[in-house]
Amino acid sequence: EMQLVESGGGLVQPGGSLRLSCSASGFTFENYAMSWVRRAPGKGVEWVSSINSFGGTPSYADSVKGRFTASRDNIKKTVSRKMNNLKPEDTDVYYCAKLTTGWIGSTSDYRGQGTQVTVSS
Question: Taking Cα atoms as reference points, which of 80, 70, 69, 79 lies closest to residue 29?
Fold first, then answer.
């Protein structure tokens, strides 16, 4: 059974940092690109970042570029994201998503349950 389990969310003050992780199982992790997306209550899903199956240079949304850093470990079957200089508008539920191919341009076919990030003083 395919599973993606996110962790690392929580409450942080503006300007603070958090590191999210996503543990994968049930599929050949190293063959697929992975993404992070987010969704706030009442809003649609917003793409945040993607990373190819082999790693390389991730792609980021303009809203997080320069503040968020994505990475993956194909041995541990995890994807991570370090979020710096967090802003209140970053408050969302963050999901890790599996893409349908090894390239970041492909679509998503599975998403985890998400982890809540709240940025507030």
Answer: 79
